[in-house]
Design goal:
Length: 186
């Protein structure tokens, strides 16, 4: 049996009793006390560090694959964005377009007449976004929708994406499904 904890506990008890009695003896032996520091656990904070960043994926049309018809037609690249609005940061990176090096490797931004976006909202697994500027497929099946869908679906909170035209219309505005506006149909 290990007597060290019991012995230590007993000595601490005697020291506490002796200190409480207020003895006036002139004992020159210094009193020994053992201080126990309480442990404090701070709750986690919900603040974002000023320099925090997140890596997201942004998809662009791979021109070389589009010419040959080889799938996948869209290729992703990494971008660094600032939380907490990472979905908006990813769309901002899309509209900024590929870098010069990425363009040299065949990546291109298909805008389909759009100059930007607004009203990005994610609610109950559905991301909705409104195109700004214009909206036209030009008769092509390769549109900005092919870039926006995977960008927004990369987030765990998004199951479906609804893209709205600048006039606020989309083909399937309600329900659990993807939707594009008629202007992005070929």
């Amino acid at each position: 049996m290990n007597r060290t904890p019991a012995l230590l506990f007993g000595m601490l008890g005697l020291a506490a009793v002796a200190g409480a009695c207020g003895s006036e003896t002139s004992d020159t032996t210094p009193a020994t006390t053992m201080a126990v520091q309480p442990t404090t656990t701070l709750p986690p904070t919900n603040t974002t560090h000023v320099n925090a960043t997140a890596t997201v994926r942004v998809w662009f049309l791979d021109h070389n694959r589009a010419v040959t018809g080889e799938e996948p037609l869209y290729r992703s690249v990494d971008r660094t964005v600032k939380p907490p609005a990472v979905a908006a940061g990813a769309l901002d990176a899309l509209f900024a377009g590929p870098t010069a090096a990425e363009r040299a490797n065949g990546l291109e931004l298909i805008l389909s007449g759009a100059t930007g976006y607004s009203n990005l909202n994610i609610d109950h697994g559905i991301a909705s976004v409104r195109l700004e500027g214009g909206c036209s497929s030009g008769g092509s099946t390769m549109t900005i929708a092919g870039e926006i869908f995977p960008i927004l679906r990369q987030f765990a909170s998004v199951n479906y994406v609804k893209i709205y035209a600048p006039d606020g219309t989309t083909e399937t505005p309600t329900g659990s499904s993807d939707s594009i506006p008629a202007c992005l149909e070929p």
